[in-house]
Automatic annotation (TrEMBL):
Pfam families the UniProt entry points to: ABC_tran
Superkingdom of the source species: Bacteria
Gene3D superfamilies: P-loop containing nucleotide triphosphate hydrolases
Domain ABC transporter stretches: 2-232
Tagged with keyword Cell membrane: no
Keyword ATP-binding: yes
Origin species: Ligilactobacillus pabuli
Protein's name in the database: 3-dehydroquinate dehydratase
Keywords assigned: ATP-binding, Nucleotide-binding, Transport
């Protein structure tokens, strides 16, 4: 279980996250939704220790993240919100780097890598530099890297971004299978159809605050005649819209 307790991040004058309280259970796919700048990546980066929250706590499987950072990091596979990393390396060199960082046994790494590379159809390109890849191919490299250690907890920031429909379908399938095994899958998306396909539970953020947290089923049941798009837009509103005019949860 992952618990966020009053998680707060302030950048200068910007309150990117404001006392966020959330519990994310195993065995479910948990989705973050929210307009640009709502705080999704800030939450995710805090979870994976890329940034340090200004205040609040993150507890993973009963352990405080700040006290067990290395141990917890080994359990997590992370897809960042940009695939434009390590562009000078070949895909294989990048995966070797991750294999070393996660101290993977060579045989296990080789087997898992072959499966993932085959699934995402990158076999012919493994020794080419990431910088020569298309956006979607870079995304595949990052996704394969995140899943290479067969981590318990998947934290994926807009993972379907740039993936072709086949690769997106395959990744969604992997996410479902991982959750079905009782593991944790967290992702963010702007694609409401994807959210509707995948999410058991979701959090909608707006300007660093939680405006909905609950199951997709309960949310849809609450507004039975509306599409998820209508419900989401009703809740999240326009960025500049006054609070008074928005639907209240
Ligand atoms: N490094 C930073 N320095 C200053 N402000 C930042 C930084 N990173 C994020 N912010 C601000 O924090 C707020 C939340 O940003 P965040 O990236 O978490 O949003 P998001 O929901 O992931 O948005 P998007 O959907 O556009 O990726 C925004 O106002 C953003 O400008």
């Amino acid at each position: 279980m992952i618990e966020l307790k009053k998680l707060t991040k302030v950048y200068g004058q910007t309150h990117a996250l404001e006392k966020l309280d959330l519990t994310i259970k195993e065995g479910e796919i948990f989705g973050f939704l929210g307009h640009n700048g709502a705080g999704k990546s800030t939450t995710i980066k805090s979870l994976v220790s890329v940034i340090e929250p200004t205040a609040g706590e993150i507890v993973i499987d009963g352990q405080l993240l700040t006290e067990h950072r290395q141990e917890i990091k080994q359990k997590i596979g992370y897809v960042p919100d940009t695939p434009d990393l390590f562009l000078q390396l070949s895909a294989n060199e990048y995966w070797d780097l991750l294999g070393a960082a996660y101290e993977l046994a060579p045989a296990a790494k080789k087997e898992r890598l072959e499966q993932l590379v085959d699934l995402f159809e990158l076999t012919a390109h493994q020794d080419e530099t990431i910088g020569s890849f298309s956006h979607g191919m870079r995304q595949k490299v990052i996704v394969i890297g995140a899943l290479l250690s067969d981590p318990e907890i998947w934290i994926l920031d807009e993972p379907m971004q740039g993936l072709d429909p086949q690769a997106a379908h395959d990744l969604k399938q992997l996410m479902k299978e991982h959750a079905q095994k009782g593991k944790t899958v967290i992702f963010s998306t702007h694609d409401l159809a994807t959210a509707q396909q995948l999410c058991d539970e979701l959090a909608i953020l707006k300007k660093g605050q939680l405006i909905y947290n609950g199951t997709l089923h309960d949310l849809m049941a609450k507004y039975p005649d509306e599409s998820l798009e209508d419900i989401y837009l009703g809740l999240a509103g326009r960025q500049a819209q006054s609070e008074a005019g928005e639907r209240n949860e």
